[in-house]
Amino acid sequence: MSFKDLQLNRPLLRAIAETGYDEPTLVQEKTIPLVLNKKDVIVSAQTGTGKTAAFALPILQLLYDKQDASKKGKKIRALIVSPTRELAIQIGENFKNYSTYTNLRSTVVYGGASIEPQVDALKKGVDILIATPGRLLDLHKQDIANLDYVETLVLDEADLMLDMGFIDDVKKIERLCTKEKQILLFSATIPYKVEQLANTILKAPKRVEVAPNSSTSKNINQLLYYVPKANKIELCLHLLRNTIKGSILIFRRTKYGVEKLEQTLLKNGYKVDSIHGDKSQNLRQEALINFKSNKVNILIATDVAARGIDINNLDAVINFDLPNVPETYVHRIGRTARAGNTGASYSFCSADEKSYVKTIQQLIQIQIDVIDEHPYPLDPKAKPMIHKSKKTGSKHRKGRKSEASKKKKKRWY
Ligand code: AMP
Predict the structure, then answer these.
(1) Distance between CA 134 and CA 126 in Å, rounded?
(2) Where is this region: Disordered (predicted)?
């Protein structure tokens, strides 16, 4: 199927061609006709499937006919709600790209940044607003964001939005828009609470499922290192010195782990940056720009901070900590070896993570190659470490969480 077959208009086809897309992805093929038919849709698809264009393109097409309303008279007619600022910015970039040959205007609003430029942009009038929930509600309260004319509401990464505690905000936003609007709900997974939300706000939704990808590309050389937990940093340094080159994304489970590894790599002279939930918006954005522009070649991230973010074309992914959800492994390593390139993944498994290897291998139906020849092998008989509390003295010890982390309870990633 081609984009032409999807009945998209010329200005959009031209922008698509210039972006370099040859044909629609599966999720686009299935979703675009439904959106154009003004259906409510629940789409379960992960980042990397092309899901942003699956809603952005038909929304632009639907708005195109009314685009010549005088600029001052522009009303927000499409609203995209996104859980994180990075994702919102990325969606905004997509809209800007695809709308090059239209007069449709879009803007992005998110917290953690000065509100004035966002107010100015909204006052000038936009057709499409991409927003994080908190800032959107703020702007609505101040009578800056009028949602009375929203014809299409998109909830992106709905599962993450609910995990982050935005359920009430999302429901409120939905109520602030017109009753007649079309709702598109995108979610990587559809757990019960997403289903419940969909049942309360969507009308006779159509469903699109892009099967969670359980296969890994043949072009990824997947390697597994059994290593004691205490030696993971040494193993990482050893591999960076001798084996792994190019642009590298390293996943760690916790923010604390990300920080610790970043400090070690910096001390060892590596060009490295990181993203996690305790960093300010500016620092996170800066880290992404540094990485994408090759100013640094190593980025360390938590899964949630990296979620939805377009960081592809990597030479290698290091699973410093193994994920306990096997699909996350597929998702992580799928960021390398895109578009026919080759790539490699290096997974570090300590004694307490052995069961994760089992479930990952069951999912991908591949035995991952084990590399025994390295300086920090794990004793095969090693038992998982049992963490005994070393607490002494006052039980009101500070603990290892940063002050910023304690303040931002809602953001747990
Ligand atoms: P997304 O799942 O929306 O985050 O998109 C993942 C990546 O796929 C982005 O870099 C898009 O630019 C790219 N992409 C989206 N649609 C297509 C397409 N039809 N052909 C090739 N690449 C695409």
Answers:
(1) 19
(2) 377-413
Residue 23 Cα: closest atom of ligand 1? 19
Strand-pair partners of 348 = 225
Closest to 109 measured CA to CA, from 83, 89, 124:
89
- Which residue's C-alpha comes closest to atom 1 of ligand 1? 50
206 close to 34: Cβ distance less than 8 angstroms:
yes
SS3 for 193? helix
CA contacts within 13 A on the Cβ side of 291: 26
Show the tokens assigned to 322. 């193994």
How high is the pLDDT of residue 403?
57
226/201 same-domain check: no
Residue with the two structure tokens 């905004």: 92
Q: Tell whether 185 and 44 lie within a shared domain.
A: yes
Mind listing the pLDDT tens digit for each residue in 259-285? Answer: 999 999 999 999 999 998 888 888 888
pTM over 0.70: no
CA of 179 to the centre of ligand 1 (A): 31
b/e code 264-296 from CB counts within 10 Å (16+ = b): ebeeeebebbbbbbbbebeebbebbebbbeeeb
Give me 337's structure tokens.
């070896």
Name the amino acid, one letter, at 136: L
Do 224 and 202 belong together in one domain? no
Ligand 1 center to 50 CA (angstroms):
4
Count other C-beta atoms under 10 Å from residue 256's C-beta. 16
Q: What is the pLDDT of residue 266?
A: 96
Domain tally, the chain? 2
Report the side by side order of strands in the sheet with 182-187. Answer: 106-109, 128-131, 78-81, 152-155, 182-187, 41-44, 206-209
Structural domain of residue 267, as residue ranges?
Answer: 220-370
Cβ neighbourhood burial of 213 (10 Å; 0-12, 13-18, 19+): middle
